[in-house]
Amino acid sequence: MSKLDQIEKSVASLSDEELKSFAEWFDELRWQRWDRQLEADVRAGKLDQLIEDARLGSAAG
């Protein structure tokens, strides 16, 4: 059984209250990882073109 299979089985066996707590924890984890990825993308310049496009669009009205 893979690690993912084990996790799925464990999550499926949670009570409603445990599942709610797990979902809140998991959502927070996902947002933290998304934030780290976004920060890395900004540092790497991956969003520079989007920022420039927005500036040009704003200046054009």
Walk me through the structure.
With 61 residues, the chain is mainly α. The chain has one domain (15-60). The chain contains 3 helices and no strands. The radius of gyration is 20 Å and the shape is elongated. The mean pLDDT is 95.
At a glance:
The protein has about 60 residues and is an all-alpha fold. Helices cover about 85% and strands about 0% of the residues.
Look at the helices and sheets and give the structural class.
mainly alpha
User: Per the principal axes of the C-alpha atoms, what is the gross shape?
Assistant: elongated
Low-confidence stretches: none
Q: How big a fraction of the residues is strand?
A: under 5%
Number of contiguous helices: 3
Number of domains: 1
Radius of gyration: 20 Å
**SS elements, strand count:** 0
Layout of strands and helices, then pairs:
Elements: H1 3-12, H2 16-43, H3 48-60
Could you list some keywords that capture this structure?
61 residues; elongated
